[in-house]
Structures are given as structure tokens and as C-alpha cells.
């Protein structure tokens, strides 16, 4: 089995370590998991979450090293510090997992998400939708006489705010990619 690989200075406490103070505060964490790119790996990772009742708020996966057959799974999840530690430990026990990095505790990171939003409307609603899109730096990627499709990139909070403002203007449909995240600075997690 592959051991959990933690960055220098990261905590390696067990969820059952009685020296670790327990907290019931729910925290949001972004995990970067480097895995072998082979059939069934994603199913095992998702199965770990489903089997233990952990929630996945966002999930993205893509190959990052074609010759090395490695993929990066970025998972946004939430739970108490003990649950987050348990998730990281259990992910590290999956044979095809090379490393688990908690970007939330390892230092500053950059998170971005892409979304497409379809907004329908006429007259003043269309003008207001275009004005708000300009403020949020969203692009029009499709337009008809009665609808727009906007493309927006940013933090999940920015996309939520844009969607909230578009609802009264005729928001019909939203498609989101999920969070892509990298730590800031020169260190790499591969």
C-alpha cells in the first residue's frame, strides 16, 4: 500500500489520536490528489467518500502527465478537522494514490472555476444582464434575440454572486466545471 505523503510541516495525526483536540467546527478544504491514470481509480476515490458519508462539494479530474500516466483529482470537501484528517489518511491508503495534499492548510493557493450561464430575457433585462456581465468580466459566448450564454471564470464565490444577480434577470441554466486549484509559490505537488 502507498503511504500518505504529506508536505513538510503538515500534521500526520490520526483521527483517533487522543492528543489531538477534537472540534465540531465544519471547515471547507481543497485536496489535490495525484493518482495513477488507470480505469477504476476515480471510482475508488468517490467510493471512499460515498461509503463513509463524506460530502464532495466539487470534483475535477484530468491527466497531468501523459508519459507518467498520472492524473490530478481536485476535491473540495467539508467536515470537522478530524473528518478531514480521516479523509486524507484514507485517500493515502488507496494503492493508486501517489500523494494527498491539503491546499487549505499547506499555505496560500489559487482556486478557479469556469461556468456557463444561460440567461433569457428581453428589453431592459438584456441590457442589465450585459452590464452585470461586464462588471464581472463574463464573456458572451452565444447570443440569440432572446438569450445569452455567459462564460465566467473565477472563485466559486464570484460565480455564486454572478448567478445570484442573474436569477431575477432570467437565469435558466448553469453548468460549472468544479474547482481547479494550485498552491502558490515554487513548490510542485507531483
UniProtKB/TrEMBL annotation:
It is an enzyme of class 2 (transferase). GO terms for biological process: isoleucine biosynthetic process; L-valine biosynthetic process. The lineage of its organism: Bacteria, Pseudomonadati, Pseudomonadota, Alphaproteobacteria, Rhodobacterales. Pathway: Amino-acid biosynthesis; L-isoleucine biosynthesis; L-isoleucine from 2-oxobutanoate: step 1/4; Amino-acid biosynthesis; L-valine biosynthesis; L-valine from pyruvate: step 1/4. Catalyzes the conversion of 2 pyruvate molecules into acetolactate in the first common step of the biosynthetic pathway of the branched-amino acids such as leucine, isoleucine, and valine. SUPFAM superfamilies: ACT-like. Its EC number is 2.2.1.6. It comes from Yoonia ponticola. GO terms for cellular component: cytosol. GO terms for molecular function: acetolactate synthase activity; acetolactate synthase regulator activity. Residues 30-105 form the ACT domain. It catalyses: 2 pyruvate + H(+) = (2S)-2-acetolactate + CO2. The keyword Transferase applies. Belongs to the acetolactate synthase small subunit family. This is Acetolactate synthase small subunit. Dimer of large and small chains.
Amino acid at each position: 500500500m502507498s503511504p500518505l505523503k504529506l508536505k513538510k510541516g503538515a500534521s500526520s495525526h490520526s483521527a483517533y489520536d487522543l492528543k489531538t483536540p477534537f472540534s465540531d467546527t465544519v471547515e471547507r478544504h481543497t485536496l489535490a490528489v495525484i493518482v495513477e491514470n488507470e480505469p477504476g481509480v476515480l471510482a475508488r476515490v468517490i467510493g471512499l467518500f460515498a461509503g463513509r458519508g463524506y460530502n464532495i462539494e466539487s470534483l475535477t479530474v484530468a491527466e497531468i502527465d501523459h508519459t507518467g500516466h498520472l492524473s490530478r483529482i481536485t476535491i473540495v470537501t467539508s467536515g470537522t478537522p478530524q473528518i478531514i484528517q480521516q479523509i486524507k489518511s484514507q485517500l493515502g491508503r488507496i494503492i493508486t494514490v501517489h500523494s494527498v495534499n491539503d491546499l487549505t492548510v499547506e499555505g496560500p493557493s489559487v482556486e478557479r472555476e469556469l461556468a456557463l450561464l444561460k440567461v433569457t430575457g428581453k428589453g431592459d433585462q438584456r441590457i442589465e444582464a450585459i452590464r452585470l456581465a461586464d462588471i464581472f468580466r463574463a464573456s458572451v459566448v452565444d447570443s440569440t434575440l432572446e438569450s445569452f450564454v455567459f462564460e465566467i471564470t473565477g472563485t466559486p464565490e464570484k460565480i455564486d454572486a454572478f448567478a445570484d444577480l442573474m436569477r431575477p434577470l432570467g437565469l435558466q441554466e448553469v453548468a460549472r466545471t468544479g474547482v481547479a486549484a494550485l498552491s502558490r509559490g515554487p513548490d510542485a505537488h507531483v
